Structure prediction request, 116 residues.
Amino acid sequence: MITLSGIDPNMIANNLHPAQPTHPGEIIKDEIDYLRISQKELSEKTGISYTIINEIIHSKRQVSVEYAMLLEAALNLDADMLINMQHNYNKEMALRNKSFMERLKSIRRIAASVAL
Prediction:
């Protein structure tokens, strides 16, 4: 679909979605690799269990606000950045969930018919 301006709305930067969203665990992994510390050392430094750190790094667990703040103290990574990355990752994953998007579309149709 091309608009009157001749621009396809799917090609506007704000409407583009990454091929693969970035989980904050990827940034954390890059940082500990750069600093040459192990997940075990990070666990000891932060008090976050090794299992939780490993799950975060492998995108199997979310970075909570508390974890983000502990990781900020240990790695000097901005907690707000990690929290925002997690939020954006969660939203992108929801947008990719077809059953959720169908449910959302159905709710919007119902809400639109009630509003009339």
Remarks:
- The chain has six helices and no strands.
- The chain has a mean pLDDT of 90.
